[in-house]
Write the structure tokens for this entry.
Amino acid sequence: MTGTDIFLIAIQAFGGIALFMYGKTMLGKGLEKVSGGKMEKILSGLTSNVLKSVLLGAVVTAAIQSSGATTVIIVGMVNSGILKLSSAIGVIMGANIGSTVTGQILRLAGLESSADTNLILQLLNTKYLAPIISIIGLLIFMLSKSDLKKSLGETFIGLGILFTGMLSMSDSVKPLSELQQFQDLFAALSNPVLGVIAGAVVTAILQSSAASVGILQAISQSGALKNSAAFPIIMGQNIGTCVTSIISAVGASKNAKRAAAVHLYFNIIGTVLFLTAVYTIKATIGFPFWENTIDMGGIANFHTFFNVTVTLLFLPFTKLLEKLACLTIRDKPDDDGEGGEIVIDTLDDRLLKSPALAIQQANNTVVTMGKLALKNFREMRKLFVDEYYSEKTIGKLKENETAIDRMEDRLNAYLVKVTECSLTDYENRRVTELLHLTSEFERIGDYAMNLIEDAERLHGIDVVFSESALHELGVISDAVQEIIGMAVEAVKNNSVETATKIEPLEETVDYLNATLKERHIERLKNGECVIESGVNFLDLLINLERISDHCSNIAVYVIGAQKRNDFVNRHEYIKAQHESSDEEYLNLAEQYMAKYSL
């Protein structure tokens, strides 16, 4: 075999690797979209139940076809404070099991066509199966209009490309089996240390254990790969995949770095223990199959057996792994925190690997904005009563407002990054909705701040409202406080049911606002209150009404985003609601009028 022949084989092999990697990526993205991001979202609700965490880690990794992507997401969630380190350990262990699914799928490429003329058996051969799957995927993708079906089509196309890349790699390396140098290379890799290093290096370069296992499966088709060489290489691949999580932990919090360290320690210790057990058995009892050639199915099975065994071995020792990571990455004596941060930034860029999860975290941050605005409003109400007025309270409320402004800036920048990911139509609508909601809650915070400044101004000139004015303010403030809470709840749960209850209450607030203006003007005319308090009272009513209006906007955005078409037109929706003869709407409006009766 000439140098030219080897060069041409290399081109074909690397072309196959390129197709394989692209198909794997496309398959993972398709599966992630089909799942709707639900499996990743479940991760944020994990408890300390290790078995549950392992299972979910395996399922999520099988869905997105990358243990590296799963661990990067986990590092991001730990960094954001969404997951505790103890909960993350089980997910990391389960990710190793989930990564074996790719190898089990790829073993189909090793099926030989039946010597029989049975057409069905012949079509199971990847030579025919790959184009069939690709054609089916293309038809689904082109003929479907729904996001879900298009994503399913992408999944099939990705699988077809994956198989095509595998076939290209297998065909390219088969002629190399005749080369003595090729056989000598794999004979040398029978050395466990060299085999582990080779597996780790290749996987670190590709940043995917599933991909390196796939390449090894392709090489096995040449007939030059024996069990003695394949076993240490497969074990080394688990160590190499840790590079992805280590890189992602750079610049992260200590707990995020510990999560990456747990991933590394788990794989290194597991490999050492398994390697020791295998070679001890080989030296004492021996394996009759040790020098036999291994096929694609054998590689897939050993990869699965290795990861499942190591995970089961470590299940009782997760606390020790956590302790080891904490001993390696220690807290400094002054790591008590500066105390100035009100909220942890949950918008970690690592979560962008799963757009659905990134969108959910953005939604959570919007909810946090709403909760802070609600807290400011609730505390603001006390400031109009002299005995509860406190400069310290005002200082805390201003800190909350600063935090709301910071979150708005962070959310806008983060959501722009989300739009650069591959999104479904529904996810695009959710991003647009969140951009609107961010602005609405920020404005609610601003108006709450206006009310706080009104309280400061009145206190500064030693002006107080009359008992009747304070009572009226209490009634309308109760209604506004409830409507803010409903807006937060609607966004938190993406609840159309809660959102539809907001407009009847907003109409009640409008009625109260108009009524209170008339009453206060009458008090001014009758000399029952001074000009200074009168002007401020009317200013308070304006701010309260505007907060209510923004809550109404939030309801419309939530309703629109949950529909599978464009956003609901706000003005048309509100007009239709106000003119509605819908019994449920009228009943709600009547209940709110009675509840907040003056």
User: Anything to note?
Assistant: Residues 334-344 have pLDDT under 50 and may be disordered.
